[in-house]
Amino acid sequence: MVEDERTPSPGEMLRVIEEQSAATTRWIYGDPLLLYVPWGVAWALGFTALFLRYGLDGHPYAPISQMQAVGVLMASQLVAGGLTAFGFVRMNMVVRGDSKARGTMFGYAWFAAFALMTVLCTRIGPHLPEEERGLLWAGASLMLVAALQMAGGAVFLIWPMFFFGVYIGAVNALGVLLGAGWHALLTAVLLGGGFIAVGVVLRLRS
């Protein structure tokens, strides 16, 4: 018998089955690397820029303006949003029935929530000092992310997603209480790093 035509061993067959199962899971439930890591990188970059702008004692640590720091955050989030949207579109291509309907409504809920938040912050922000205005936008954004993560965990019965939403909410609340500089630092390290870690761990576990 030619070596290339030999019958695969049970171990090799099991490995192939596991690899195909993991690939199918990523197609159906989304690739964690696309759903989490881009946002982790975006928050790490953007909120680090804001941290350098604010500092912890009210004095900037780098010669960067508010608009430049926000520009870094917005640009990185646009890239992250595009990658995440690609992951959701690819996921919905193979999902049908109630699961697809829940996923679609959940996606629209993100859009509607952030649209409303933009209206509120645009109306209230101009009445606040620069740092407090930035804290309003950042705190409100992360509050929505936390709430929607918990809602997503409840809708799709994914406990890790729910508890990660609780974690985001706790870090956000602590940062808001401590002030703009601390909020930016905690978000960059604990949430930016946390999203990257969750994406990598979930991908390895899949």
UniProtKB/TrEMBL annotation:
Stretches that traverse the bilayer: 36-56, 68-89, 101-122, 134-162, 182-202
Superkingdom field: Bacteria
Keyword annotations from UniProtKB, A to Z: Membrane, Transmembrane, Transmembrane helix
Name of the protein in question: Transporter
Protein's organism: Nonomuraea monospora
Source lineage: Bacteria, Bacillati, Actinomycetota, Actinomycetes, Streptosporangiales
